[in-house]
Amino acid sequence: MGCATGTIKYSLFLFNILWGILGIVVIIFGGLGWGAMPNEFAIGILVLGSVILLISLFGCCGAIRESPRMLWTYVTFLLILLGLTVAFIILNPRDVFKKYALNVVEKQWELEQTKPGSMDVVQSTYLCCGRNSAQDYLNISHWNDSVPASCCKDNNCVNPLNLYTTGCLTKVEEAFDDEAKTSRYFEWTVLGFDLVILLLAFILAVHYTNRRRRYNY
């Protein structure tokens, strides 16, 4: 069992390093997404990344110190995280982000009627023009039958071929539909990763608990 235990121990340590890197990536994603999603969700993502990072550090310490108490606590944390991941997959909150982004487009388009340039960030981000199409700007008097530079590739509207003809509502929907496919793979990867680490941690926790009991007799 000694060789097998050592293999599991260092495998768990390696997996926790990767788990910690994942936590850092999630934190970075939450930071970059600040302003592009509701603040509550951005905070939630930052908290999730921090929790993953802390759990990974706890797992590394438990494995290296061969502490049953730390490992059982670690297993408990992993079970909680596993439950949250499953809940996220089942509840599927992607539509919340999508509705928020579409609502931002609607609000910015309303502002565009009185405050020129309000749509610039949205149009530059999603490579789109207007609410439904570039034709929408024909109904806004202060644009004089033209479109803002953000409606064109490299902000160059001299060449008509540079014009983004698709509306921002359509582009936002397409972007979130594409993201949904990628995030599903990510969610199932996290779930599988969590299960593997949970199994390794459980085996080690049982082994070190039994070993301590034998030493006490």
From TrEMBL:
Record-linked CDD domains: tetraspanin_LEL (cd03127)
Pfam families cross-referenced by the UniProt entry: Tetraspanin
Entries under InterPro entries matching the protein: Tetraspanin/Peripherin (IPR018499), Tetraspanin_animals (IPR000301), Tetraspanin_EC2_sf (IPR008952)
Mode of membrane association: Multi-pass membrane protein
Subcellular location: Membrane
Superkingdom in the source lineage: Eukaryota
Disulfide bonds: C128-C168
Keyword Hydrolase: no
Cellular component annotations (GO), alphabetically ordered: plasma membrane
Sequence intervals crossing the membrane: 12-35, 41-64, 71-91, 188-208
Keywords: Disulfide bond, Membrane, Transmembrane, Transmembrane helix
PANTHER family found in the cross-reference section: IP01817P-RELATED, TETRASPANIN
Family: Belongs to the tetraspanin (TM4SF) family.
Record's protein name: Tetraspanin
Lineage start: Eukaryota, Metazoa, Ecdysozoa, Arthropoda, Hexapoda
